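Are you able to produce any protein sequence you like plus the matching backbone structure tokens because I've never seen that pairing?
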Amino acid sequence: MLNLDKTDADHPDGLHIVGHVKANTMATAPWSRVKVHKGYFYGVTDSAISNGDLVLDRSDNYYYLVMSVKAERLGGYVTYLDGTLFLCDSQIEISRFEEGERDNFGRVLTPGLTVKVPFAYATTNLKNFDVLEQKDRLVPQEKLIIYVQPKTGVQVADRIIMLDTMDRYRVVSIDKKSIIGLWSCQVDVDDR
């Protein structure tokens, strides 16, 4: 395994860790079975893996976002780190509309889309987090949750582009507290 967010003097490209990833065989939902995996990291200190880190499983070339890490101790020593990992299924670009110059009436003359993060890894999860009220019924709105690292600096109203499918989404809200070390971005299809 390779922790891409931590480096040491011998490996400036990332911190090499002995570990492995297992699929969640006890999962009851398809999303949990496919994208939430268990990670075990051996012979490392508490600081080698942190919540929110991006790790690469070099055996199968999958990227994971670390959601939860707990040190398993025996006799006061860390024997291994036990973590929950989100499989990264998308590479994204984050851009934002920046205001340009204004004229004498306060109108923006040159609004433009500025790329803030040209390349990042993310985990996506289809969710119903909005409901449209009709006169006769409630209609759930299929929305998407995108899990990203806080270092991306994503903001509400940013545009997220999935680089593999070129689908465009706008960020509706960001939950920064539910998962320690990761941000949950509720997004909707970008029709701007």
